[in-house]
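Give me the fold.
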Amino acid sequence: MRAVPFTKQYGFRRTVVQRVEDFLKANHLRTRDLPAMYVKSAICLGWWSVSYALLLHSGFAGWPLPLALLFALSFGLATSGIGFNIMHDANHNGYSDRPWVNRLFGLTVELVGLSSFIWRQQHNIWHHTYTNIAGLDEGLEMDGWVRNSPKDIWKPIHRFQHIYAPIVYALAGVALLFGRNFQVYFTGKSGETFRYPPMTRNDKITFWVGRLINLCVYIVLPSLAFGLLGGLLIFAFTSVVTGFVMATILQMAHVTADVDFPEPTGDPLQIENEWAIHEVQTTSNFAPNNRILNWYVGGLNYQIEHHLFPHMCHLLYPKIAPIVRATCQEFGLPYRSYPTFRAALKNHWRSLREFGRPPELACE
């Protein structure tokens, strides 16, 4: 995929960055290597490890299946927590000032079932550069099952996507483990538009080590503890929990009818906007005052701040949010923030229903 440039500069990015930097300096706040982040990481990894240990023990000890499924639920939620918090910050280089620390913690993406090579290209580059642009933002793509943009290709099945989308979200984890990871590795692409750069030797080694870990953690060890069928049941259950939670959180901030879905124009293609303004116009926050949700999703409910400052530890997003909001208002930009998780989820569901309507009926 060839780069599509942003051709306008209105001073918004320069202004908001300067104001945030001044605030951080005045309050002696670091943007990375925060002690609280290391503590949070230990909690997430401890939660993951203890849940998994109890899950396996319940199988070897012959505990009742409902209890095993409870541990599996905890394990699935903990896996998502690692994805939201540790691997996300680290792969954005927002965890530490030391590259090797970011790389080390970034490898936790392999525990989630994703490939670090694929994630960095798909999420860091395509999603964060071309947010909500159909055909350029792979974060919108769900193999054609869900139409996440009013500018994307419509299929008759999309009429019912607001009903079956939760199933697609739930199966996203399994699809990544056994589908897209290997598709990208062997073909170098995940679609006609999304062609990945060549993998280095280290990328290939990391890929296969990650897949071996996935096989052992999600299939082999549970099968030893519960038997083959029981192990597959546990794998399916945990994957559904992780996939559904991660897909829902990641989609809610961008797939709503209130945000913009711009298209490139011209020949060669270009985007007549400033990149930072584009990010604000295509993104929304949700439940900013929900401390439990904010802790669990790694600040992803502050998506506007995250898209403007992806290299900053997410623990700082609530502190800089008032500055970002005020600067948006000064430049006449929308700062969309749903007050609750429920409100954002409801809007997302309504948007899926709207995007699923035939294009000729969508505006009626």
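The chain has a mean pLDDT of 93.
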